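Table S5 (text form). Sequence records supplied for joint modeling of the four-component complex.
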Amino acid sequence: MDAIRSHHLILMICDCRVEYEGRASSKLMWGRRIVLMKGDGSVVIHRPVGVEAVNWQPPPTVIHISSEDGYLKIVVVRRRPKEVLRIYIRSIDTLYTGKVRDSGEFYMYFDEEDLKKAILAHPELIEENFRIIRDEMEVEGGRVDLVGEDENGMKTLVELKKVGNMEAARQLLRYVSPIRRDGGKVRGILVAEKFNSGVKKFLKINGLEWREVRRHQVLSIIRKSRKLRRFMEGFKVE
Amino acid sequence: MDAIRSHHLILMICDCRVEYEGRASSKLMWGRRIVLMKGDGSVVIHRPVGVEAVNWQPPPTVIHISSEDGYLKIVVVRRRPKEVLRIYIRSIDTLYTGKVRDSGEFYMYFDEEDLKKAILAHPELIEENFRIIRDEMEVEGGRVDLVGEDENGMKTLVELKKVGNMEAARQLLRYVSPIRRDGGKVRGILVAEKFNSGVKKFLKINGLEWREVRRHQVLSIIRKSRKLRRFMEGFKVE
DNA sequence: CGTGCCAGGTGCCAT
DNA sequence: ATGGCACTTGGCACG
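The corresponding structure-token record, covering 476 residues in total, follows.
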């Protein structure tokens, strides 16, 4: 239709059947769903329950519309990886097409990146007289989040995580081990909001350390940043 | 409204502002979005571009509706983890409320589970005279996908992945190492559709092996399964 | 209920 | 393009 060519939004509640073939394959039998076709080529299909979409196709896509056996057939093709989404529509309950403009900015806040910013601004969150030397550094075994020096000048690798799980602990060990193997002295600290059971023990056994940072500590630091002050307005930080 | 109490679907295109606070925090400034409130309590907010939702709240939720400063205010609360989504609505473009029923079945096909089924049915995909002994087994370091025996009766741990990346290789090594450390003889094979660069080398260095399975091999095996025949009808498997 | 692991993960940014 | 890694990841299976 014209709506697709003019990159409008198309929203349907319709009785449809959906097939997907690409990295995997799936088939969704007849039923009523919400089909969302966006101006950028994205297609999202929601069932009436569940927070996640049942089928989708990320842009860029090419969309073909035709009629087959009396059904409206919409084929959404993605090139790389090669994926095809086919929607067969038996009837349309509700249809909306139109231009929807949205220029509102979106701020995400307090993810790993913000934890890092807080530590960069206040290295004492790690410990007294701690200094950050590098932000993101390639080491044997991967890329460590921060490298610092403690008050005795000992090199320290810092790995940041929202949740300190076993995988994170192993990751840190992977960074520290080669250095120690080569005779280097290095500390390794896993920083997280929360630690799963067994992780602290694993760290201890392997000569590593941890810091539990509290959400409100980080928030109170970040909210001082002028850049984010407007963002914070309206939030009552508990 | 009544629509929420009666667990109906509510779909709006509206000019709104959204705040999220919970595991992280986010703020979305005024603009036009598609707001989807489902009968099970799920709430999904889409912008007019992008395949992913900008904000959401998974069920179970409690929904409060009120009026604040002349705006319609919808608050969606999730208990564990504690998360709050606040939607302030300035104007509504389009509104749909109603019961949407969808009983159509959904089949997903050719994920790791299907790769396993194919290998269970045809262990020769691993190698000639290979026998599967166990499906899913706890070992030191985690849970391995398959345990088998080669034609010489040597125990073999098999890890299945869609993509054989470094993480998968390390995972397999983690399963094999403790056994070898204790003097056990064991082979380790990483099975995947595709291997990232460096992974095969890493496996080789650590005395592990790999098998590259092709999609069509697995498909041709699975399509023979009666249970899935109906699913396959209509697919032209290339 | 937490813990681990997969996903058509998606997205972002590095080389 | 490929790889590495975080994510309000969500989801499921399992101890």
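Note: Chain A touches chain B through 56 residues (CB under 8 Å).
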